[in-house]
Structures are given as C-alpha cells and as structure tokens.
Amino acid sequence: MAKSPKISASHEPGGLIVHISGLLPSLSPAEQRVARLVVADPADAARRTITDLATAAETSEATVIRFCRSVGMDGYPQLRIRLAAEAARRIEPPDARVVGGDIPPGADLAQIIATIAFNDARAVEETAEQLDPAVCEQVVEAIGAAGRIDVYGAGASGFVASDFQQKLHRIGRTAFYFPDVHTALTSAALLGRGDVAVGISHTGTTSDVIEVLEQARARGATTVALTNFPRSPITEVADHVLTTAARETTYRSGAMASRLAQLTVVDCLFVGVAARNRAKARKALEATAEAVQSHRVGAGRRRA
Amino acid sequence: MAKSPKISASHEPGGLIVHISGLLPSLSPAEQRVARLVVADPADAARRTITDLATAAETSEATVIRFCRSVGMDGYPQLRIRLAAEAARRIEPPDARVVGGDIPPGADLAQIIATIAFNDARAVEETAEQLDPAVCEQVVEAIGAAGRIDVYGAGASGFVASDFQQKLHRIGRTAFYFPDVHTALTSAALLGRGDVAVGISHTGTTSDVIEVLEQARARGATTVALTNFPRSPITEVADHVLTTAARETTYRSGAMASRLAQLTVVDCLFVGVAARNRAKARKALEATAEAVQSHRVGAGRRRA
DNA sequence: CCACGGATGAAACTTACTTTCATGAGGCGT
DNA sequence: ACGCCTCATGAAAGTAAGTTTCATCCGTGG
To answer: Could you name the domain of life of the organism this protein comes from (chains A, B) (predicted)?
Structure first.
C-alpha cells in the first residue's frame, strides 16, 4: 500500500535544501517543524542525532523518519549525509583570494597564504597548458641520448638547474651543474655534438646563462632554453625553447611562482627521460633511495 | 588516561582527506587499510556503514573506530559527515587525469605533463589549505625577530632550504644554509636563545636534519620543522611544526610534488617576514635586483 | 627465554535508528 | 448529534549501528 507521497528526490539537481523548502507546505505540521530546522541550518542538522533533532523540533523520532521519507530519503543517516554535502557545497564560493596582483599591505597571514597558493598553482597549471609536447619530446630525446648534459642557471633559476642536474643524475644520466660562470664556460667549451646544454632563466636575459649556452652551441651541443618569455634573448641561442607561464610582474615578490613553474617543466622532462628507459631509471632510483636509507630513522611507521 | 596522541583535527580547515593522507604512515597497518579506502573514495566511504567499511578493509569495527580517533574525529558518524562534506566540495575531477598515482607505463608526453601538473598544482593548493596561519604567524614572528636563522635540509629538501636561506638573505635577514652535516652541526652549536633553526624533511625521518635541529634546540634556539608527516620523528624536536600536503607515495616519482609544496610554504613565510617590515624588505629587494642588473641584456623591451 | 607493549578482533554493551501500534483529533455523511 | 473514517502523532518495541572492553597474539628488547 502506498503510504506517503515520497517525492522522488533521487534526482533533485537544484539542491536538497531547495527541494525540501519546495515541498514544505505539503508536509504535516510536525514534519514542517523539522523541515524548517533543516533548511535554516543544514550543517547543524547534519551534526545532530535523530533524537536530538526530534527534540529540537518538539516532536518524536518517528516524525523525523517520516520527514526523511517525505523528502525522498531512505532514512535519517542518508539525509544527514546529503545535508552535510549540501552544506559544504554552499559555503564554498566566498572565494575572495586576490588574483594575480601583489599582496595587499594590510593582509594577514591567511590571506597571504591563499594568494600565494593560488598564484603558484595557477602558474603550474598554465605552464602545463602551454607547454608544447612536441618540443618536450625532442628535448627528452636529446637528453635521453646525450653523452653529457650541462644545466646552467643563475640566482633563483640556479636552484632549479641544480635540481634538474640532481634528478638526471639519479636516473643514471651524466649531468652537471655549475654555480660559477667560469667553470660553466669551461665545461661548455668541452661539449660537442650529441651533448645537451640546458639554460634556465626566468627573464631570458641573464647574460651569464646566455653566454654559456652560446658557447655550448658553438661547440655543436644541442641547446635548450627554459624561460618565461618566448622572445627573450636566450631563445636566440637555443635549438629548443620551453616556456613557463608565471605571471610574475613585480620584482618585489621575488621569483616565487616562476620557480614552481620551472620545476614543473623540469619534472616533466625528468619523467619523460625516465620513461624512455623505464627499467634502468627505476633501478637507479631504487638504488639511490636505498643509499640514503641508513640516514632515516623510524623506518616503517612513525612514532607510537 | 591519554590513549592515542590524537592529532588535533579541530584545525584542518583545508581538507580532511589531506589530513588523513598526511597521517597515513603513522597509522597501524589495519588502520592504514581503512585510511586508504577512505582517501581513495571519500564519498563512497561516507555512504557505507561502519560494519561495511570494516569488512571492506578486512578488519573489525573496533579498528575503524580507532582510525576515527586517530585522525581526530569523535566517532564514525562524525567522520562520515565530514567525508560527505569533503567529497561534495571536490566535485572537480571531471578529468580522467591520474590522481596521486604513478605515471602509467604507456603514457605519452602530453599525458605525463597533464598528470604532473595536476598533482603539482594540487599539492600546492592542498598544502595552503591545511597550513595553520597561527603557526605560520609564530614562525614569522620568530624569524622576523631572530638574531640569526639556520636552515637545514638534505637531498631534495636541501634545495628548498637553500632557497629559503637565499630569500631571507635578500630581505636583510641573517640566514645560513649548510650542504654539509658537520658544518651544520657546528653552526647549530653556536645558536642561542632568540635564534631560529628551520629543519626541512619531506619524510620527517632524515636523521641528519633531526640531529642538527635537536642540537639547535638544546642550545636554546627556536626550532621549526617543515615536513609532510605531522607525526614523524622530526616533529619531536621542533617547537613549531609546519606541514605540506603532497600525496607522493611512490619513491619512483622522486620528490616532485613535495618540493613544490615546501617551496610554497617557504614563499608564505618569506612574504610574511617581508610584510612584517615592508619598507626595509622592499628596499633590500630593490637593491639586490639592481645588483644583478648589469648581468642582464636587453633590459627594457625584449627583441624586435 | 621471558616480560612488555602495542595491535587486533570477538563479544558485550550502548546508543541510534526504525517499525509497530494505540491514541486522539478532526472531518463528514447520516 | 452521532458514529465512522482518516490521518497525524508519539510511546514503545524492535533492530541495526556504533562503541567499549578484554583476551589474545605478535614482535622487540632485555
């Protein structure tokens, strides 16, 4: 026997709350009291137990269950979960993060964090979107087949260069990084056909890096530039150009997002090279991981 | 009777899932099975009853309850609701990009790029969400007022440490980084009250870093740990603990997302410290930018 | 080898949820 | 007005879910 109407809430795209308030007038008085509580504060309702909610609505648990059925739920637990989900979704939008711009003077730490994270994440995503897989492929090929790889970078880009060098080294590729221009120039002079030189410069105008890359190219090495500006000087001495997409305009922020964007590109190249020779790379990585094992404490689980 | 440590989840505004995956290694095997199910599909877990979930994780209800407590919940119902809310918030992945996991063997470069960027961006966002502004504030205060700041880190975290040191230095704070443990220990021994020591370790188990931080603490310095795992050994020697939220599970990927997450935290601290004394920081940044000006070519517009 | 401490599941127990059922308040035809 | 029906409602019984307790097991270190 068909008991109550039980409106199909199985599909209520507009939202459960909307759905409930829509059929509020069709509910019995006691159920309406429950409904009003629920609509007024879904998140709070989700936290309450059925007995609690019943008491708050000055009715019995049975009525609450009836209410659940009336709005199309199987039972109270299901309602609770739907309410929690609903409530979570509707507090989302207060997204007042400062986009792109500078950090406002009076910002508190929470704002600063939100702004930085947003810009950082954005730089990473946008960089990936505009990265040309074909160019990456060529670079990966070149590095994978290279006799030797030199990575150049100065200042903040130097860290990235160093990171790339270390990564390549870990998978068994012969790679170098030089914190010093003179040494770098010396090394570049010794490169030859089949070798690869990677120059990293956010602005693309770092003369030291350009100079070294030029030297490498003159010696017959394949040159790769990683920069944020596709028409900057460094691209003139590069066979392959990879670009990042950090919209860092102000110097004051220091190179923040750009580093992350560069690192993302480095990661892509690294994984690309590693994928090119899976077995070897894997073995190398495992060996290196094992090597530092003795410098770790509490191997398995951590603490008690 | 204080049973388990019960990390305060009262503050994990960013994400319960993130919080859980951070705690994962510190859980017992059976609890880890539960955690993995929950992290893999929060929405689904929220729908299950405790008995159901226990069965799925091949364990008992008791363990599921223990898991709830371990991650800071009162009990299963609360966890359920939080999960439902969490799941609702992350409606995003209409994408088939591989989340968290490894790069599939047959992947082409475009796929690799998409996957890496997604995970990197995610790590940055999630890290920011779970960062505790209050703790950051304390760290910023300490660093801003410190006589001297030592930054420690080994391996991949060493780059981050070095980056942080350089950033602090650029805004006129006296900061050091040591690639060598011995030197680091020596330096730590010379720290005192009012100085700050920052230890960076993704796993939180790097004995060298822990050792140095311990030394610094013994000398009266304020110690700060930056790690992905809130209950790892390094947190025991730190006055302030900052956590990242990279879900890097496999060693094979190398520390990719974790670096970016760490750098994001570093950026936040950096800006925080800089904001503390705007005028001075700005002047310092401009001075340093000017210093490298002569090493740039094509200053204004780029090319023709 | 034993003592110890932590991890674990079975079972007892408690609480929450669901069903059943009796009551009583209206509505309505006679 | 009376009886009869319908429906809303909560008390109480019943069932399922969640929680606690406790004995056992296993690995660790003395």
So the answer is: Bacteria
